[in-house]
Design goal:
Elements lengths: L1 H12 L8 E6 L4 E3 L5 E8 L5 E3 L8 E6 L18 E3 L4 E7 H4 L6 E11 L4 E4 L3 E6 L2 E9 L6 E11 L2 E10 L4 E10 L7 E4 L5 E8 L2 E7 L5 E8 L6 E4 L5 E4 L2 E5 L22
Parallel strand pairs: 2-10
Antiparallel strand pairs: 1-3, 3-7, 4-6, 5-8, 8-9, 8-10, 11-12, 12-13, 13-14, 15-16, 16-17, 17-18, 18-21, 19-20
């Protein structure tokens, strides 16, 4: 029944007229992603119907969703077929904008090309309206470093990996945290630009949280802390005018930077911030 409903939604979406009374736009700022990283999509809906409209789920249809096709035109299934969103009124001539992480909503895990459309269902008009198709590619990064450690207070293990991934003319550094035994990926965070010939350095504190120190510019460094469940625990900028700084472990298990001057915390890139929990469909994992 759930699969049939999904197929029906896709068929109805394909019949939306070119001159739509709802205009749907899908924006994904990048075209290349590393496996398991957030894929941030922004959907904008403009009401051109000449009257106020209320977008709401029906027993058969969800008003907000996506059509995602993988290799061989394979349909990519939602992680939760029954998620629902509150009804939303759009005034005549008004707009609605919603930003979501597609990696949390859909099973986009395999390498390859994906074609993505946003679908908006209008129960008033009994019609789907769709955006233009956008193509993205999911690949794997180049492994730089990997280490498996235990989790304090139990027998679980975490595998940390540092990976490089090319984005246009820049190479970017990523960290991944996973429980390989149980097949769980807790995070894949982008840490910033990776300069060729200048590998990052890394170490663990007493709780096996990972610290990564990387060169990002002329005499500029970033220190990032990642928790054992993939928590992003902050990033700080350091200046090193005389020599390359390094991490040193103290007798109590804490870490300190030697040779660098702390400057300021770095705000997490807005494109990497997950959608607020209040905006996520129920049943979607938060990690």
């Amino acid at each position: 029944m759930k699969t049939a409903r999904l197929l029906l939604a896709l068929c109805l979406a394909a019949t939306a007229t070119a001159h739509a009374q709802l205009n749907v736009d899908l924006e994904i700022k990048r075209r290349s992603f590393i496996a398991h990283e957030p894929i941030i999509a922004t959907v904008t809906v403009s009401n051109l119907s000449g009257r106020d409209l209320t977008l709401a789920d029906t027993p058969q249809m969800q008003w907000f969703g996506f059509q995602i096709n993988g290799q061989g035109d394979r349909i990519v299934r939602p992680r939760n077929l029954n998620y629902g969103l509150d009804p939303l009124e759009i005034k005549s001539g008004g707009q609605m904008r919603r930003t979501v992480n597609l990696s949390e909503l859909y099973e986009i895990g395999e390498f390859g090309i994906y074609r993505i459309r946003a679908n908006i269902y209008s129960a008033d008009q009994k019609k789907f309206y769709s955006s233009r198709s956008t193509a993205i590619e999911v690949t794997e990064g180049r492994l730089i470093w990997k280490q498996t450690v235990g989790v304090a207070g139990g027998g679980a293990e975490r595998t940390y990996s540092l990976l490089a991934h090319q984005q246009g003319e820049y190479s970017m550094l990523y960290v991944r945290v996973e429980d390989r035994e149980n097949g769980v990926v807790y995070c894949t965070h982008e840490l910033g630009r990776l300069l060729e010939g200048q590998p990052p350095s890394q170490d663990f504190d007493l709780g096996n949280n990972l610290y990564v120190l990387q060169l990002t510019g002329q005499r500029e460094y970033r220190l990032t802390k990642i928790g054992t469940n993939g928590e992003y625990l902050g990033q700080t900028k350091y200046a090193a005018p005389k020599s390359r700084p390094y991490l040193r472990k103290l007798a109590d298990g804490n870490l300190q930077i030697v040779g660098g001057r702390r400057e300021e915390p770095i705000a997490k890139n807005a494109a990497d911030v997950p959608v607020k929990l209040s905006e996520r469909p129920p049943g979607i994992p938060t990690n």
